[in-house]
Design a protein that fits this description.
Radius of gyration: 25 Å
Number of strands: 2
Oligomer: single chain
Largest sheet: 2 strands, antiparallel
Shape: globular
């Protein structure tokens, strides 16, 4: 074999190895993508188990759930902490589909959706959990939506935080406030004013961790009642029907006296 032929074969062999490595990398990347967020293939999901909705539920202990949510807040913040506190336990108790759910992807709920101060991540995360477990509106059942609206009203009208962690990171007594709104910037802003603490303070952070824990506790209470067949919604809030526009029951915090009036639909002709 002459030197030129030996060189050509060596280069071809190198190209072949590179192609194999590239192909292997692509397969590995594809496999990884099947386990991220919504990019889960039916095969990886055990025949499409993620698409089977609603998901099974086993009753959880509210205290244990709240403790998990409190600790998880310091890792993934409010919304993902609430989701993790429930789905993390159900991963152990049930397995799939909970083991396939990308909990940490919901870290964006922090700060009222990526820091925009809209709906607080704690009730938003609770709403994800409730609707994944209870499911869509089938045969007139709206329990998932009802738990969501109950959580929103409870959050708005309760002196938060309620839950006191076993080993709080901040030992000082923290004030409680009623937000009268599910919005993060109002809820946090009212508390900051009452506590005279800035946004970046350890006290404000621990307050929000305790709010997430309080919300997780309340969520599991409602889910357990639903599982027992004894859940009844305690709110009939529907701003759309009452005022012709989606919203919340407290408009004045944001709009003052200039609450916008939505165009009303014309009554059906006889």
């Amino acid at each position: 074999m002459d030197e030129r032929m030996d060189k050509d074969m060596t280069e071809q062999d190198g190209m072949t190895r590179r192609k194999v490595l590239i192909g292997t990398g692509a397969l590995a990347a594809g496999a990884a993508l099947t386990h991220v967020s919504g990019l889960i293939s039916p095969a990886a999901a055990g025949g499409g188990s993620l698409e089977k909705w609603p998901w099974p539920y086993k009753k959880l202990d509210p205290n244990d759930t709240a403790e998990i949510a409190y600790k998880e807040w310091y890792r993934v913040f409010c919304g993902a902490a609430v989701i993790s506190s429930v789905f993390g336990q159900l991963r152990e108790l049930i397995g799939e589909p909970y083991t396939l759910f990308p909990i940490d992807a919901f870290v964006y709920l922090e700060g009222g959706q990526a820091g925009w101060g809209t709906i607080c991540g704690a009730p938003a995360g609770a709403n994800v959990v409730a609707n994944m477990i209870i499911g869509p509106r089938i045969d007139g059942s709206t329990a998932g939506h009802q738990i969501s609206t109950d959580i929103m009203q409870w959050y708005s009208q309760t002196e938060l935080p309620v839950y006191k962690p076993k080993e709080p990171k901040v030992k000082a007594k923290l004030p409680t406030t009623i937000s009268n709104s599910p919005l993060c910037h109002i809820s946090v802003g009212r508390w900051m004013k009452a506590a005279n603490k800035p946004l970046g303070s350890p006290e404000r952070k621990d307050r929000c961790a305790r709010v997430a824990a309080s919300t997780a506790y309340k969520l599991v209470e409602l889910l357990n009642k639903w599982k027992e067949g004894g859940y009844e919604s305690n709110t009939e809030f529907n701003c759309g029907q009452k005022h012709g526009i989606t919203g919340q029951f407290n408009c004045n915090d944001c709009h003052g006296a200039n609450v916008p009036q939505a165009p009303q639909e014309s009554p059906p002709k006889a």
